[in-house]
């Protein structure tokens, strides 16, 4: 049975189905989608895939927490998000990501209310897949804070199943727009996830005690999970199927060159210096 439309479904939304691109381009497209929504274009719900696999650093993360040589050797790209928190290894096959982008004036001013509004279609999708998941009921101590999936669990925006983290979600707010993006683990790639970080002694076994993938919980292919998430986002927003315009792609490529693939942004240290 289709999920019910959400409270913002009376606006114009577009659904962009799973979009396969490099990490810097994915982050640039989030920013471009925000510009489009503010300029009177459609709001965006989308699902995307990181190819090649990518480490996305939190906005204020120290680049010394990255094993740059290991990333280069394994072909993992590195970018930096506009959102805070720790780094996330987005495996090309094990990760499923989404974004919801809308004008700030249309969303709750309270951060917790906004998270719960925008996480609703993600939880609906998991429910449709028969995954017993919900927000973390209480804070859980961190294992290693530089890695997002090993940070302390936050009841506002971390989704757990089987007492392990399944999905992390984050927002950044500009004066006129809000971007929420999230990472849903389809399959845990513990060793690959840990290899991109430097300066820790976390084992893959310990990582698996903290993190779970959808493939461990239900018998569903990655394609089935993607399709279910797309359907839930589309229903929640009452979105029409859409795509990026040529102008949006051009602007995103400029942002990749100027920011999301540039050392001045990716390798900058806390305080703003590369």
Structure keywords:
11 strands, 34% helix, BirA Bifunctional Protein, domain 2, globular, eight-stranded mixed β-sheet, 274 residues, alpha/beta, three-stranded mixed β-sheet
Description of the structure:
The protein is an alpha/beta fold and 274 residues long. It has a single domain, classed as Bira Bifunctional Protein, Domain 2 (BirA Bifunctional Protein, domain 2, 2-Layer Sandwich), CATH 3.30.930.10. It has nine helices and eleven strands. A hairpin with a 3-residue loop joins strand 9 and strand 10. The longest helix has 18 residues.
Q: Structural class of the helix and strand makeup?
A: alpha/beta
Shape: globular
CATH superfamily: Bira Bifunctional Protein, Domain 2
Task: Specify the CATH class.
Answer: Alpha Beta
Biggest sheet, open or closed, and with what strands and sense?
8 strands, mixed
Arithmetic mean of pLDDT: 96
Assign a percent range to the helix content: 25-40%
Order of helices and strands: EHEEHEEEHEEEEHHHHEHH
The total of beta strands comes to 11
Uncertain runs: none
Number of structural domains:
1
What would you report as the Rg, rounded to the nearest angstrom?
A: 17 Å
Strand order of the largest sheet: 7-8-9-10-6-2-1-11
CATH topology: BirA Bifunctional Protein, domain 2
How far is the first residue's CA from the last residue's CA? Answer: 50 Å
- Looking at the overall shape, the CATH architecture is 2-Layer Sandwich
Percentage of residues in DSSP E strands? 15-25%
Total helical segments: 9
